[in-house]
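Hi, here's the filled form for the chain we discussed.

Project: internal
Contact: R.S.
Residues: 671
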Amino acid sequence: MQNKIHNIGILAHVDSGKTTLTEQLLFLTGAIRSAGSVDSGTAATDSLSIEKQRGISVRTATASTMWHDVTINIIDTPGHVDFAGEVERALSALDYAVVIVSAVEGVRAHTENIIKSLDAAKLPRAIFINKIDRPGSDVNAVMNELKRVSSQSFLLLSEIENEGLEKPGTKKINDFAVSATEALADLCDEAADAFLEEKSLSAERACELVKREISACRLTPVLCGSAKYSLGVKELADALVEFMPSAERRATDDLCGIIFKIEHDKTLGKVSYIRLFGGEISNRDEIEILSPSEFTLNDENENAAVEIEKKPPAKEKVSQIKKFVGARFCDSGIVKGGDIAAISGLPSAKTGHFIGSLAVSETSNLVNPFLRVRVTPSDCDPLKLPTLAAALGELSDEEPYIDAKWENGQKEITISTTGKIQLEVIDTLLKERYGLSASFSPPTVIYKETPSGKGFARARYTMPKPCWAVVEFLFEPMPRGYGVSYHGRLPSNQCFYRYQSHIRTSFNSCLEQGLYGWEVTDFKCTLVGGEHHTIHTHPLDFFVCTPMAFMNGLDEIGSTILEPLLKIRVSAPAEFSGKLLSEIVKMGGEYDTPVMHSQNVILEAIVPVATSMDFPTRLAVLSSGKAVLNQSFYGYRECRDGLEHINPRRGVNPLDRSKWILYARGAYQTD
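And the returned structure, exactly as it came back:
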């Protein structure tokens, strides 16, 4: 491995100063001649026109620089919750994160979600408390909030003068060993003994232990400053190379990398951004592309299911490798373990796919799209639908959560979205990149469904011959948030293992549309029965039979609609508390006891998405613009509005047995 490499992500809530800090780091380290401005649209890492116009980042951007002989690859991520998918995918490529928190607004909802996701991914992090020059800055309050949302210990490495004034000052703490000993006292016996004896560790030993505990995700260093005025940026850069772990922490012996971003370039075609953990790749190398869903570890317990048949890994030839100098590409011809590069020539690559071999990495979802939008050509010309579907499919490669769906014969395409700003970005990209003009329907809520009780799901497909497939499942409801698990293995002489693999593959496809057309979740499925016929069974028969069994089961057991919920946090002058509580009750929400903070009331509540889509507008009106709202996805619960929510089905419903069999066998086409 070459000189030390740090792959870092700049993460935060929108308007906390991520791109500004990235610019200042690039300027400090000599990667750019002057620090650009987000507001003026001159930031090096904001390249899309909509980013320059709106002054926000909507896509992950990568830049590279050097500081004290350490290569620092910086991944600048969007802060708006609409683009949290970009953050989620970037986590897989990082050695550690730099989380920015505003000294005025404190730890906001999206920042809290980011910190929890870093915990789940077991990623070290440093905190930069930004904007200490602004009135209302309160570093002590921010530190208390950080301790509330994270179980880690914190080591404050900055001393501040004139906080909240136009020209504050920061410097390194006077006695690092003393502060480090106190911060480490709860983490290791050596520091605890020294602290109880009112002594301190040596500076050298304190540094060793601080680096060890940061790498173990038990200690978080905190620095303060103002990115706008480059205050505290040098101290941050020094601390990163001194204390934070390098790429060696995640190194592998074999060729292994992860694709964390996909772009489409007019000249280069599909470009795959990869983080390489081990090995090296050169131009014209053939590399294997692996999907984590297709290559899972075998489960040997007695209730294990037959694995899905695995396709041979795709081998594709690398045509070009580009690395970053500052925020610009340059041809390199090779990328080695620990580094980041952009590779052309991998047509089947998708975000989240691995290169060479699988790397084990835990993540947690930052995104749960709960709105669906219908998309049609602006002029309603049906001949333009395939072109529009292809463009949205390409955008889905870049942002999988868009999840564009369209089947031949349908007069509209549907996409998932997390908010209005994301739709604006999609609209702009369609016009600028593809020359397409589209119309978007008002967003509708994405519901889900789950089996209403425990029961069996059966189907027999033995006519018209030649065919023979029998499938029987046991469905068992599970708690909210469980997802879906699949179990059960039949004797091979009862049902060949390859047919049981077909059943499992088909079952996974069935989950997309339940009794009411929504995704089916939160249940356990066990294959308890099935049979084949040595003469009459065709290899595709179980792909016909399984959807019939699945839908028969839901039809017999019943399906319960689940609605998405938001967690909201409102801070407003105390005189508006009564109106706020009334609004939450009207929305069918549930709230905690209001908390008074200075002259403001802080209220947290759980509300349905369906009734709260226009709540930000109503809140601004009822509070005369004085309320501050933070909201994040909370989860799903049984729908309580008493309405029947049906999502139009794509394709033929397997409950229509005759038509389904013809459709599944290719003898019937939808209109």
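Let me know if anything looks off before we file it.
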